[in-house]
Amino acid sequence: MENAMSSISVEGFEIVNHILTLGYATMAAALLFFILTRKDSLPKYQMSSILSVVVMVSALLLLYTQKISWTEAYAFDGNEYTVREGADLFTNGYRYLNWLIDVPMLLIQILWVAQITGSQRTSYMFKFSFSGCLMILTGYIGQFYEPGRINEDVTLWAVWGLISTAFFLHVLVLITRVIKEGSSKMSGGAKSVFSAILPLFLISWWLYPIAYLAPYFMTMGYSYETTIVSQQVIYTIADISSKVVYGVMLTVTATMLSKQEGMAESQA
Ligand code: RET
To answer: 0.85 exceeded by the pTM?
Structure first.
């Protein structure tokens, strides 16, 4: 395990480096998009854009940290990349802590576009934050024991992963309800775009538990390199879809709703 864990080919190293850079560059570009398009919708929808801005700033900083953690963990030995003596190990731990901020924000921002208001909104905000945060915290504990780490413990890794999945299922039930309720109040283009958020959500959010499982492939004979490279690629695809594409779809829906509700071009 020691040896297998300490080397990565030039291609593998570069793919991770490039994909992490793509990740934070996308967040930076999207940050500008959400700031610049906020006023294209009526004030009652603008909280969705504001929360996207919060998510972008936190993800931008985290993915940058993640890239630095990657480049500092390995050194080129003229042939391949090996773990640098005395360096901090590369870790996904920062990601989990970033999700602690982003997950509640992403879940809550949709409530404004779905036009869920008053005490119903407060109740969803509480439930989303509760289950979202517990899903992340239990998964964070579990990832310390993933196969291939120094203190690997497959049982603990699986048990915490399953507890986290129970909270995840609760989140999925709630978000399905919110999207159905929201789209039932809409018509035309806004309804189509808003309804399409459900499949996007289901696919992109399931990628995270799949990435959590990636280290298990090592016990099935895949190399450390294949595992870690595929894990980082999956995380980046998931991050771009669950934060940026999702946020853009909410913005587009809000803009269309605002037009239908009589917001003139000149007001935008
Ligand atoms: C964990 C642990 C294993 C089981 C499950 C998980 C789910 C994670 C999810 C994360 C979503 C993160 C998002 C971040 C955006 O910034 C914690 C990996 C079910 C669904 C959307």
So the answer is: yes
Candidate from 164, 175, 204, 244 with most ligand 1 atoms within 8 A of CB, to mutate: 164
Vertex 261: Cα angle to 258 and 267 (nearest 5) = 55
pLDDT at res. 90:
83
- State whether residue 7 is helix, strand or coil: strand
168 lines ligand 1 (CB under 6 A): yes
Q: What is the CATH classification number for the domain harbouring 134?
A: 1.20.1070.10
Q: What is the mean pLDDT of residues 130-145?
A: 96
Retrieve residue 60's tokens. Answer: 């931008």
State the residue range of the domain holding 251.
Answer: 7-262
Is 240's C-beta closer than 6 angstroms to any atom of ligand 1? no
Closest residue by Cα to atom 19, ligand 1, is 165
For ligand 1, atom 2, which residue shows the shortest CA distance? Answer: 139
Q: Is residue 186 part of a domain?
A: yes
Q: Where are the beta strands (DSSP E) in 59-166?
A: 74-76, 81-83
Residue 218 has pLDDT above 80, yes or no: no
Q: What is the pLDDT of residues 12-22, one digit of tens each?
A: 999 999 999 99
3-state secondary structure of 26: helix
**Residues 259 and 46 sit within 8 Å (Cβ to Cβ):** no
- Tell me, what's the pLDDT at 215? 85
List, edge to edge, every strand of the sheet that includes 7-8.
7-8, 81-83, 74-76
52 lines ligand 1 (CB under 6 A): no
Atom of ligand 1 minimally distant from the CA of 171: 20
In the structure encoding, which two tokens stand for residue 108, read together? 């809550």
The total number of structural domains that make up the chain: 1
